[in-house]
């Protein structure tokens, strides 16, 4: 949903309710005052911090005067990240400081807090948080990603200073698969950026109040809002509010619910009388009918608000606001995804919930998270899968406002877990659902990043049925095909890498496709070297892709795995922004699989996807137009139109109306000439859009451009100002091949955090940086004291540039502020339907036994066998056992294979398995040597001398050569006695 991005505009909605002015505003505005005794304070400012573990730091009287002053969001890993080359092999950045640190904060409560309830809310802490108030231990949270809270009331001083202390630990074990108990706390999944890296709030409420949706520690569930019986003229909205009466006497109350539309008008209201017993919680339900409801679409995410009010003796005691999006949806196994009856292909990204940023780590102000989300929206995204662990509260709300269908997990690594690990995971899953269940953007709960056992699935579904029984959301586990029982419990297949569906009766959504990597700084093989192709680590790279290659691959992956398949709901490109997690290319300090880099500068892949996914006519010429005089190269144009013309200096080079992979128009052997290249895009012969790229001149100057939040750069101790530094020619055009060092002079009221160079170690937090493709971006953190910073950028031979940025004072008193974290205020503009969709090939089906090597395949056993491609570690061996291939002979990698039913291990038939060889190939059979060797293996195959394990069973590898067109028949596993736990043989093949 493309938004109008108007910085600094704050929308306020007012309504008159029983003579009390109720102000409803966006989260970035001053704390909403809906009425009653509830006040929410920003608790981020002015913490004391030490990167040590001193004894008795929880004590009220502990001397922390020598500690550093910081504000949240805060991480103690912002200076040791994005600075080491990827180790390769999918290992993340491990050289980060890990251990135990302390935070302390002093605060006084306002006079009106006397007699009230006081709760603290942490949006999450990485990784383990032990919380104390005035020396009293409150409890622990070790999820790292799920909000949690505590009741501070019994331990507070209402007329004196209080101190809260938080001990934080981000340590982890070396082996990410056995990092007990917190298997997800590892840089393989997420960089281990420790700290109070998200927001902290203080809630002051009447003892009679609507509870917070913070189950951990508080055991409260807040409100639950859902819509049913949705039609064009009417929708029923149910509001369930958990109310807590912490008085010692019963209370007669009125519960009012108001539905407020996007214009601030009351769409419906309801009022009921109740009695609630002393010191009891009760859930009160109300149903409201909305006439002619405005529906939430991905292309028009219309949002209502529900305001729940408690009154006693006609006085407002408490009130609470809940988002509401009214929508129907269906994931259909044959025809894909529907929103309000409209067929929509879902396209977007996976994103790490750490959202790491070079120089800043995982501690980002909310507006920078919004900055990232707006880029995803600009590129035409409408789907997001949070990678393995839950996104932040602000980001899930961004899914609501930008129109992103969200696949939401709790916390998970990549394993089925037991014991303490599972206990933490399942509790986190419950807490996540309680906190986020009202967000209309969430359509799928992800039970885990790996298949579960039946008892675990039953626990997952029990939590959903208990806390979100009417959300109608689907549940799935990525890699659910690793457990035979999965199909009984999951309601959607969460696929990986766009393979054919494993489950013929389930819809499919892709969780991780196009995991290739390429840094932004690499244009193509025709451009000057960029510390990539000539990098000393280049031979160790898994991916050797230029930016051009990477951009063109976006269409190949999207179209062939999801785009051309009517039954496929769509999926998540892995991943949106580069980060220091699990990279496979040791030429980089990141996993460079993002469409934007580690400071959110777009790659060519970003514009490629934008040209595919935006509904308006789009066209993008991949690359630049500054080549050497003798250059002849292919020119790739990405467009969602039906034909493209290419011009060089207004001379027609060619016309292409038959795109590759749906969107790629290739013009081969184009001779470069100084001037311009232009692409014109057509639909049904009509010119719809065009793009021109020009040859830029020599670098003459540096240009600096500041980027701040919608309210400016706030002096809150954690806000960030960005500065784009460009090298430009005499006409102000960016020089796309510039890559030299730029030095900075910095002074004033801020903390320099710099940026990074993707192909150089130790490039962060320095007062120098190389431009990459003519641009780079640096960051500056604010202080608690407002002031001005001056930034000068210079390079010998270029005209230097200087800018000033002024931070703004934040009102806070006694450690509390009413100013909420700032976000962009966006005004939704309904998108059109796609201007053109590529022609879908005939014959695409959801699940089939197709193979290049195993043609005319048949299997006559008691259970079905399944054909699969691309063998590697972790692939499932059988259809009915959980064992996966782990260490296998290297020559078997990327083989096609047959997933056999182990239940046929005692079944024998002469023609159990038959196929026609689709090519000359080598056929391999893995055989359990405890089972007598079948005759076909004795007669036609030879023992390679190699073996591998499936579970605890050793399988010997046999092989034979097969010619294309040859018929191969295999009999059953055995017709004699076999051990109780015997394994069925397995079959693999590779082209010869």
From TrEMBL:
Keyword field: Glycosidase, Hydrolase, Signal
Database matches in InterPro entries: Beta-gal/glucu_dom_sf, DUF4982, Galactose-bd-like_sf, GH, GH2_Domain-Containing, Glyco_hydro2_dom5, Glyco_hydro_2_cat, Glyco_hydro_2_N
Domain Glycosyl hydrolases family 2 sugar binding: 68-203
Lineage: superkingdom: Bacteria
Domain Glycoside hydrolase family: 713-804
Record-annotated Glycoside hydrolase family 2 immunoglobulin-like beta-sandwich domain positions: 232-327
SUPFAM superfamilies the UniProt entry points to: (Trans)glycosidases (SSF51445), beta-Galactosidase/glucuronidase domain (SSF49303), Galactose-binding domain-like (SSF49785)
Protein name stated in the entry: Beta-galactosidase
Native organism: Flavobacterium pokkalii
């Amino acid at each position: 949903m493309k938004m109008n991005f108007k910085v600094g505009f704050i929308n306020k909605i007012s309504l008159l309710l029983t003579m009390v002015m109720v102000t409803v505003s966006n989260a970035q505005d001053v704390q909403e005052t809906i009425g009653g005794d509830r006040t929410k304070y920003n608790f981020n400012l002015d913490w004391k911090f030490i990167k040590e573990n001193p004894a008795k730091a929880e004590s009220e009287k502990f001397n922390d005067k020598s500690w550093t002053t910081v504000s949240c969001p805060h991480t103690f890993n912002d200076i040791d990240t994005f600075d080491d080359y990827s180790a390769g092999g999918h290992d993340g950045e491990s050289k980060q400081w890990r251990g135990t640190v302390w935070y302390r904060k002093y605060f006084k409560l306002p006079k009106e807090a006397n007699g009230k309830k006081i709760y603290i809310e942490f949006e999450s802490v990485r990784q383990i948080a032990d919380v104390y108030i005035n020396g009293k231990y409150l409890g622990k949270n070790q999820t790292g990603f799920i909000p949690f809270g505590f009741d501070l009331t019994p331990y507070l001083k209402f007329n004196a200073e209080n101190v809260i202390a938080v001990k934080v630990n981000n340590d982890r074990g070396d082996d990410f698969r056995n990092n007990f108990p917190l298997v997800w706390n590892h840089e393989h999944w997420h960089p281990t950026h420790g700290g109070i890296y998200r927001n902290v709030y203080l809630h002051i409420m009447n003892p009679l109040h609507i509870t917070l949706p913070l189950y951990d520690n508080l055991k409260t569930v807040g409100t639950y809002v859902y819509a049913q019986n949705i039609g064009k003229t009417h929708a029923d909205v149910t509001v369930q509010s958990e109310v807590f009466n912490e008085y010692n006497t019963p209370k007669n109350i009125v519960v009012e619910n108001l539905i407020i539309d996007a214009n601030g008008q009351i769409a419906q209201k309801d009022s009921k009388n109740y009695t609630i017993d002393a010191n009891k919680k009760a859930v009160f339900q109300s149903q409201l009918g909305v006439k002619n409801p405005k529906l939430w679409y991905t292309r028009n995410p219309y949002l209502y608000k529900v305001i729940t009010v408690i009154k006693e003796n006609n006085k407002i005691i408490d009130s609470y606001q809940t988002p509401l999006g009214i929508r129907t949806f269906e994931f259909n196994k044959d025809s894909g995804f529907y929103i309000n009856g409209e067929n929509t292909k879902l396209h977007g990204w996976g994103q790490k919930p750490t959202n790491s940023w070079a120089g800043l780590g995982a501690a980002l102000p909310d507006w920078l998270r919004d900055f990232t989300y707006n880029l995803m929206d600009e590129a035409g995204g409408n789907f997001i899968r949070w990678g393995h662990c839950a996104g932040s509260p602000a980001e899930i709300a961004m899914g609501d406002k930008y129109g992103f269908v969200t696949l939401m997990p709790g916390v998970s690594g990549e394993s089925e877990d037991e014991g303490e690990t599972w206990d933490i995971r399942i509790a986190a899953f419950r807490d996540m659902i309680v906190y986020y269940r009202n967000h209309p953007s969430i359509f799928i709960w992800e039970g885990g990043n790996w298949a579960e056992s039946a008892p675990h699935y039953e626990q997952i579904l029990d939590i959903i049925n208990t806390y979100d029984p009417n959300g109608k959301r689907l549940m799935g586990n990525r890699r659910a095909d690793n457990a035979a029982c999965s199909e009984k419990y999951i309601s959607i297949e969460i696929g990986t890498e766009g393979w054919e569906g494993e489950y013929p009766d389930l819809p499919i959504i892709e969780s991780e496709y196009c995991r290739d990597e390429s840094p932004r700084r690499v244009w193509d093989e025709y451009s000057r070297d960029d510390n990539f192709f000539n990098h000393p680590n280049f031979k160790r790279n898994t991916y050797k892709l230029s930016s051009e290659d990477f951009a063109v691959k976006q269409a190949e992956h999207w179209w062939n795995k999801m785009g051309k398949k009517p039954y496929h709901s769509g999926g998540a490109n892995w991943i949106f922004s580069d980060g220091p997690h699990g990279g496979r290319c040791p030429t980089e300090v990141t996993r460079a699989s993002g469409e934007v880099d580690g400071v959110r500068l777009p790659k060519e892949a970003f514009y490629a996807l934008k040209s595919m996914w935006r509904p308006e006519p789009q066209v993008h010429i991949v690359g630049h137009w500054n080549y050497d005089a003798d250059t002849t190269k292919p020119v790739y144009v990405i467009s969602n139109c039906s034909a493209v013309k290419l011009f060089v200096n207004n001379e027609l080079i060619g016309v292409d109306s038959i795109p590759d992979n749906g969107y790629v128009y290739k013009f081969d052997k184009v001779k470069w000439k100084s001037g311009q290249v232009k692409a014109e895009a057509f639909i049904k012969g009509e010119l719809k859009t065009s793009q021109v790229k020009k040859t830029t001149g020599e670098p003459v100057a540096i240009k600096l451009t500041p980027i701040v939040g919608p309210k400016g750069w706030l002096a809150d101790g954690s806000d960030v100002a960005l500065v784009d530094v460009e090298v430009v020619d005499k006409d102000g055009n960016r020089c796309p091949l510039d890559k030299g060092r730029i030095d900075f002079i910095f002074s004033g009221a801020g903390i320099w955090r710099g940026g990074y160079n993707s192909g150089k170690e130790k490039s962060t937090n320095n007062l120098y940086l190389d431009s990459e493709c003519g641009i780079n971006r640096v960051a500056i953190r604010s202080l608690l004291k407002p002031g001005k910073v001056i930034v000068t950028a210079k390079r010998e031979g270029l005209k230097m540039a200087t800018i000033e940025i002024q931070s703004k004072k934040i009102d806070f008193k006694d450690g509390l502020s009413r100013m909420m974290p700032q976000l962009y205020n966006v005004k939704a503009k309904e998108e059109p339907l796609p201007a053109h969709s590529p022609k879908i090939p005939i014959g695409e089906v959801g699940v089939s036994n197709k193979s290049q090597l195993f043609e005319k395949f048949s299997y006559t056993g008691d259970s079905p066998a399944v054909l699969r491609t691309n063998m590697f570690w972790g692939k499932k061996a059988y259809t009915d056992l959980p064992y996966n291939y782990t260490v296998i002979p290297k020559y078997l990698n990327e083989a096609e294979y047959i997933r056999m039913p182990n239940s046929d291990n005692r079944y024998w038939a002469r023609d159990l398995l038959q196929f026609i060889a689709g090519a000359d190939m080598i056929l391999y059979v893995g055989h359990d040597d405890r089972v007598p060797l079948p005759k076909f293996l004795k007669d036609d195959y030879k023992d390679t001398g190699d073996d591998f394990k499936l579970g605890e069973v050793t399988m010997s590898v046999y092989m034979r050569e097969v010619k294309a067109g040859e018929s191969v028949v295999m009999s059953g596993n055995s017709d004699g006695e076999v051990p109780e736990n015997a394994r069925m043989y397995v079959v693999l093949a590779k082209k010869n």
